[in-house]
Automatic annotation (TrEMBL):
The keyword rRNA processing applies. Signal peptide: none annotated. CDD domains: PIN_Fcf1-like (cd09864). GO terms for cellular component: small-subunit processome. One of its GO terms (biological process) is rRNA processing. Gene3D superfamilies: 5'-nuclease. This is rRNA-processing protein FCF1 homolog. InterPro entries: Fcf1/UTP23, Fcf1_PIN, PIN-like_dom_sf, PIN_dom. It comes from Papilio machaon. Residues 81-180 form the PIN domain. Its main location: nucleus.
Amino acid sequence: MHAQLRELNRGKQRKTRKIVEKRFAKMKKIISPSDPRIKAKDRAEPKKKKAIDPHEMKIREVPQTSSALFFQYNTQLGPPYHILIDTNFINFSIKNKLDIIQNMMDCLYAKCIPYITDCVLGELEKLGRKYRVALRIIKDPRFERIACLHKGTYADDCIVQRVTQHKCYIVATNDKDLKRRIRKIPGVPIMYVAEHKFTIERMPDAYGAPKGAI
């Protein structure tokens, strides 16, 4: 008896659910703008396409090229080299037991000034005690600080924006995504750690010299 009552209740619940679903499944009917029931004054006028004048001068927007680039060669690069460092590069240098400033000079055969942005410093501070060695290294007075005006501590966007505006920097990073983004910006060389030493990429291109000349 109880089992029959339970089955009846279940059947009623299923039926009620189906009715509710059908009710909500119905779409609202929208009156067409051309419906005769709409008064002429309330009807929206159809948008007229602007006639194309064949003699009109067409304006094409082209992104402005930096004045530092002379036939794609960066004239602002030169000793002392200004090198923007990211968090990844500092960590790779520590893992490979490389002195950052000394190895930069060994790589470029010239004086190098490493630059640390506020957001790179913020990223290292967020990483905690594990990266206290990296923090101690970048607080060396030979490392120049660059103040950031943007919100947050995401360094990649900051570095990309900075080298797009100012072509005087070399970017030091081992981050694959950041390297891919920097390669799209003409005239900006990339420094990275490979085989326990610093390597420079795109430097001959930036100077307009043949491969292997630098």
